Predict the structure.
Amino acid sequence: MPDTLLEPGMIAQLERLELVVRRLFSGRMRGEKRSRRRGQGSEFADFRDYAQGDDLRHIDWNIFGRLDRLFLKLFHEEEDLHLSIWIDASTSMSFGEPSKLTYAKKAAAALAYIALCNQDRVTIEAATAERMELSRPLRGKPQLFRLLEFLDGIRPGGETDLERGLKAFALRNRSPGMKVAISDFLDKAGFAEPMRWLLRGRSEPVAVHVMSPQEVEPELVGDLTLEDSEDGDTKDVSISAPLLKSYRRSVEALCGNLKEFARSHGIAYFFAQTRVPLEEMILKALRARGVVQ
Amino acid sequence: MSFLAPLSFLFALLTIPIVVMYFLKRKRKKVPIPSTFLWVRAIEDMRVNAPFQRLRTSLLLLLQLLLVVLAATALARPLLQDQPSRGKSLVILVDVSASMGMTDVKPSRLDAAKQAARGAIEALTEEDQIMVISFSNRAEVASPFTLDRTAALGAVEALRPATTATSLREAFQMAVAAARQFANAEILVLSDGNFDPIHAPTDEVPVRFVAIGGTPVNAAITGLDVRKPPALGDPWTVFVFIEHFSKEAREVPVELYVNAALKEVQEVKLEAGRGRAVIFEVTGVAPEFVEVRLGKGDDLAADDRAWFVVSAERKKILVVTLGNFFLEQAIAQYPDLEVDRVQPGAAAGMDMSSYGAVIFEGYSPPGLKDGRYLFMNCLPEWEGFRDEGAVESPMAIDWDRQHPVTRLVEFGSLTVKTARKAAVPGYVKPLVESVKVPLIAAWMKGETRAVAVHFDILQSDWPLRLSFPLFISNAIEWLTREGTGDWQAHRMPGDPLRVRLAPGRSEIEVMTPGGARHVVKVAPGETEASFTLTDEAGIYVVKAGEGTDQLFAVNLMNPVESSGRVIPELRLGEESVKGETTPPAPPREYWSWLAWLALGLLWLEWLVFHRRI
């Protein structure tokens, strides 16, 4: 059901938020975001001397009256923001209780709704190594239903290929704005190269790392054969405390590396356990980091 | 260390299927996970300390094997004891005599002995065999050699205290005879040691002795006699001798029951370790049977009561004498006696079989047949009896205080001018002894029962003493008594009752003090019946013919039993076995520890399986 992705209580809270981009950039259409371009907006920015050919409508006649000199009033141009969200829809995302993909969809829905409320442009794509689903660009609150319908339609399946997915995502969304990648980042090829694609273009990159509690603290016992859900790779293990300790170190290493990579490349990184309520994530973590306000 | 159930080690074979299953188990359960990406790194990490990890993977197997081995060991019931007791044969001799009923060790000495026996039995393994023999005045096999410890324990539990004296000899001989058939045999004696030292070969069977008992407080009736009044209208006299075996003086009420009715109570002060006589005078009633009780309880109840049956029959004696005033006076003291007198010359060849006893004074006729005789200053012309001259001024230094003839008779400071030195056969028992020669002796041989006084009473101050009429009275009493095997003044528990049958009867009926009725059948032609189930003290009523019942009193009256002394070591001829004061502690079984350990291992295994470790 589409409406389970966004709970009514949360909708009210999301409506009060807006996305924040630290870099100012120009949008394609006039929106509600301040842009670095001075001009048509309503918010005063600065004065400057009149030069020939400037729009006479922006001359400050009060100052002319007092100083007998022509000054031009400059305004922040208010622009729209392009929020593009990339969701990893590989099979591994279907694990966890609640599943990582569901969590990813909810997070995407929340972020997209914030954007829709602020007249920002939203595109969402869900990708695996083999396939890719792309939403139509959405704008304005009335599009919420379409957004939810698209998210609801995303089905997990296929292998993870961050490199291919993010590369295509980056190339498709060159316009300035906010690029959000939601994934478990469990790619045997590594995450560093693919993540660099997020840095392309003049956009604000955000990485949301989703992990289920079952991955952080596996509830496994005895001698087992672990089977990879994507490539069918198997590993024989005898579960023991040292092995689990080692596994935990491995999880910490993945998270730590991601975090470090993001920090050094200016990517906003969020770790999300699917057991942690979404409100906590959107309303607290993102707000604290200044991604929304 | 040894094991009670070594067969249980077969359970250890369970380790084989465990190992087999461990190797068959290789097929692991498949678990789908999002990605092996994280696990690959974890497994690689683990490989760094591989040898230890390999051990860890088989840790569960090791724990399971250890668990099974521990459980099997626990089931085998290991024992911690000094010596292994494989294939041992243990003979346990348990004293059940009267003194074992003492309560100076709680709950009683017999219970302590049973406890010790249980400890000894529980110390044995399933391969050891046990024999249990109880002994009092006779030995009884409570349980023959058995491998079944439960049966042996049951036999020990079923032991009941008797009220009899103690004799270890028979039991010990039985034990040695049984034990010497086996290589690794041992005899364990559980007793307080209230018996005479025995001279019995042990045949190199090791003997252990556990001395049981403490320091008892016990007052005992060790003598009871009822005398008829010398003249009509005089009171009956009841002599009671009470001994007190304790380190402290004590006051005890002595109750006298005549014909089952309480007649009198005397409060008697008993000094520590001493005995004293108590005399009751009974008037107004002719006693048929008398009971004396000590009112205050003590550590042994069996010797606090004594019974006496007053003989109703009239005794008949013959005195062969030239005439002796003192002797006549003394005989006259004995009530209800029919006395015939003859001169020595007329005695030869006379038929004396109708008399209960014959007294020869200074002369004994030749060709004397078996019978009951008192020889005064003369010896019978029988084999082994010879006069070997005289001894001047002998002093009585010791006398038999137990013998019925000299009981309650005082011989100290007796002055005798000349005594005869008599050569006598070995069976003659000296009753009163001087330094060199016996002054008075007694013996029983076949049908004969005799007392001999080896000096002329007129050449001594004896006739003037109180002890003389008492002695004569005792001698007549003992000589005229029925039966043969009767050394004691009273029948002791376990002694047979011999009853002369009325003509034409072939059975007697006996009622015991406990109220049980027994019928004893006698082979035709026998004139005497014997009843042996006299373990109880009290009055036995015997119906032997028409008319009145015969009463028999059976009393413990055994100062050795009543003393409750505990011997420090057991004397067996030249050997002596030091008493172990502490009963053999049952060896500690520690299967429970192993079981706990196994449980701990199980828990550890659970922890390991659920990767807590």
Summary: The domain at 89-215+564-586 of chain B is CATH 3.40.50.410 (Rossmann fold). The longest strand of chain B covers residues 218-227.
